[in-house]
Amino acid sequence: MKRHAFTLVELLVVIAIIGLLSTVAVVSTNSSKMNARNAQRKANLVQISKALELYFSQNNGYPSTSDQWWGVTSTYYSHSDSGASGWIPNLAPTYIGVLPRDPNTGKVNPSSALAACQTTATENNFIYRSDGVDYKLLAHCIPEGTMAANDPFIDPQRTTWAWGIFTPNARNW
Q1: For the chain, which residues make up each domain, given as ranges?
Q2: Whether the model pTM is above 0.85
């Protein structure tokens, strides 16, 4: 006798295979998004550092925060994205259009090695410190995922939860 329909077992096998394939697709998509956000963070650090060097060449010093950390996080004060009250004072809009924010701003980072970043949504952002002579710029509470030991952006003082760009004398801040 000829069959004209699928059996229940055949249907269940097909549904299980589709479920497995969709799970793999979602996981790989999330990984790609995470890698894209990490790449954006590094590009932002480089872009800001170039604007800082342009500022330095025209003003014989870096924008000063009186040797305090400034940023747009709950821990490191709350500053704007441009002007004298910008988290890097007077850098935007003259030397850079707008000071960038972290691509994951407003979200927690459960993969961060710093506990506050895993639970506080306002910690993922860039922070800056300068005495006018030297500076340190950090991508705070990141990266997402694990950090490679040979990554040139690793901050030597925060090896598990921050990327940075800095002048040589600010290395140990």
Answers
A1: 35-170
A2: no
